[in-house]
Amino acid sequence: MFKLGLMGCGVVANYGHIPSIMNSSKFELAAIYEPDVARKEELQKKHQVEVFSDVELFFQSGIDAVVITSPAPAHYQNVRDAARYGKHVLCEKPLAMDDEEAAEMIALMEKAGLMLFTAFDYRFSPVAQMIKTIVENKSIGDVRSLRLSYIWNNHGKYVNDDQIPPQLNLRRANRMIEGGPMVDCGVHQIDLARWWLNSDVQLQHSEGAWVDEYEAPDHMYLHMKHANKVHTMLEISYSYCFTAKEPVSHFIYELIGTDGVIRYDREAKLFEMRNASGTTRFPYASEKNFNGMYEAFALSLETGQTGDMPTGLDGLIATRIARRATNELIQKRALMQASK
Ligand SMILES: NC(=O)c1ccc[n+]([C@@H]2O[C@H](COP(=O)([O-])OP(=O)(O)OC[C@H]3O[C@@H](n4cnc5c(N)ncnc54)[C@H](O)[C@@H]3O)[C@@H](O)[C@H]2O)c1
């Protein structure tokens, strides 16, 4: 059994990581590092584990590996500390704030002989795993194009719009400040496209819109040309219905091949393949799978092999593509405004 330490105990730790750690026979949640001291007692009581606000004491508490679920700007320092204490890492996405940080994190971990993984949990959904198998065994022929779309409101612009002034939803606001929807959410789909196709991205082009008022565009389109000539179109939004009383969202994977298509529609709970042999309906599953990710993480810790685990490099590449797509649009917009 591996003793895990968790760094940053907020939303994703509480709904995704901790339940999976508790659920696993391979892991024990042994310690939490949470700098927000006001929540120490509440977290200790809830998770029945020692909560540290001193990072040195956390690392000296006898843990084998760490999971980093802090906000993106903290990942760099969290990984540096883990490397200093010789701990393997599973780090939430986006891996880092820029390429330099990510490259340094990877180099530090490699130098220390440690594994660094990025928490792209979408890879472990039975849906994503089935798509990988279908692509590999060519049941829809040769894949030529991917249409991936996740347009939603990231829980809305306001938490309470009945108040005057309305209360801003900081969860969404902070993610917009850290880079916007492509960097925060789109990295999952960029990773899936690379992983399903087993092919890197050679060319990219983005377009987007500013529905809200942040530096980053909040509704974006990214086109990627992979080395194997397959095209991926990714649409991502944090402003779709962001002020609507009754918001709706769309989450879609479509893979178009020379002999058929794969269709996954989360909202319609639909997962099917249509090809010359007919229509095959697969069991619906959520797009996320933290349990599956922790099974794969345990296997990697046991064997020292990567397996299906997304590496630090996978994290760096997805974040690089997402930031480039976002930054190009920010720069283009600034040039257009300057030339007015
Ligand atoms: N894989 C997924 O499906 C998924 C889903 C949601 C969020 N995320 C990612 O997880 C990360 C956390 O997101 P969240 O929504 O849980 O954020 P959050 O703000 O709810 O929680 C982050 C926690 O980290 C703590 N923290 C702040 N600074 C820290 C530091 N220097 N070291 C350690 N902890 C620190 C905060 O006090 C807070 O408790 C982000 O990178 C986000 O993009 C991933």
List the helices and strands and how they pair.
Layout: E1 2-7, H1 11-23, E2 27-33, H2 40-47, E3 50-52, H3 55-59, E4 65-68, H4 72-84, E5 88-91, H5 99-111, E6 116-118, H6 126-136, E7 143-151, E8 158-160, E9 167-168, H7 170-177, H8 181-197, E10 201-209, E11 219-226, E12 231-237, E13 250-257, E14 260-265, E15 270-275, E16 278-281, H9 290-303, H10 312-338
Parallel strand pairs: 1-2, 1-4, 2-3, 4-5, 5-6, 7-12
Antiparallel strand pairs: 7-13, 8-9, 10-11, 11-12, 13-14, 14-15, 15-16
The site of nicotinamide-adenine-dinucleotide has 23 residues, from helix 1 and helix 4.
Keywords:
single chain, about 350 residues, alpha/beta, Rossmann fold, Dihydrodipicolinate Reductase, domain 2, 2 domains, 8-stranded mixed sheet, 6-stranded parallel sheet, 10 helices, about 40% helix, binds nicotinamide-adenine-dinucleotide, oxidoreductase, Gfo/Idh/MocA family oxidoreductase
Notes on the structure:
The termini are far apart. It is built from 10 helices and 16 strands. It has 340 residues and is of the alpha/beta class. The protein has 2 domains: 2-118, 3-Layer(aba) Sandwich (Rossmann fold); 123-338, 2-Layer Sandwich (Dihydrodipicolinate Reductase, domain 2), CATH 3.30.360.10. The chain has helices spanning 11-23, 40-47, 55-59, 72-84, 99-111, 126-136, 170-177, 181-197, 290-303, 312-338, and strands at residues 2-7, 27-33, 50-52, 65-68, 88-91, 116-118, 143-151, 158-160, 167-168, 201-209, 219-226, 231-237, 250-257, 260-265, 270-275, 278-281. α2 links the parallel β2 (27-33) and β3 (50-52). The model has no long low-confidence stretch (mean pLDDT 96). It is globular. The structure holds nicotinamide-adenine-dinucleotide. Nicotinamide-adenine-dinucleotide is lined by residues 7-13, 33-36, 69-72, 74, 78, 92-93, 119, 121, 184, 288. Residues 2-119 form the Gfo/Idh/MocA-like oxidoreductase N-terminal domain. Residues 129-263 form the GFO/IDH/MocA-like oxidoreductase domain. This is Gfo/Idh/MocA family oxidoreductase.
